Amino acid sequence: QVQLVESGGGLVQAGGSLRLSCAASGSIFSHNVMGWYRQGPGKQRELVAGTSSGGSTNYADSVKGRFTISRDNAKNTVYLQMNSLKPEDTAVYYCNLKGTNGLEFRDFWGQGTQVTVSS
Asked: What DSSP letter does each residue of the chain carry, written as one string?
């Protein structure tokens, strides 16, 4: 089993910054993708950014140039630096880990952390 513990959410004014962290523990496959999803009020959950154990990253178009995802493999931790925040970034942000050992696929979610951007 894998546990994901998120931190760093909160209330910030538009134009401000926040940094989210997600620490993973447990049986983590070495080949994995860690990412951040978000779900705004009345919206479906969407991918914000992801980073693979091989170092590749991808971003939603809406956050490119403003958000940066990074990871510390030694600590099994992924970060999301969010700059130039907008009110439409308001959502619950969820950490996600997908991993495989070639035989088995696993998919885990954190409990979510609220990010509120005031105008």
From this structure: -EEEEEE--EEEETT--EEEEEEEEES--SEEEEEEEEE-TTS--EEEEEEETTS-EEE-GGGTTTEEEEEETTTTEEEEEE-S--GGG-EEEEEEEEEE-SS-EEEEE---EEEEEE-
**Count of residues making up the chain:** 119
Take residue 108 and report the two structure tokens written for it: 């885990």
pLDDT tens over the chain, length 119 residues? 899 999 999 999 999 999 999 999 998 888 899 999 999 999 999 999 999 999 899 999 999 999 999 999 999 999 999 999 999 999 999 999 999 888 888 999 999 999 999 99
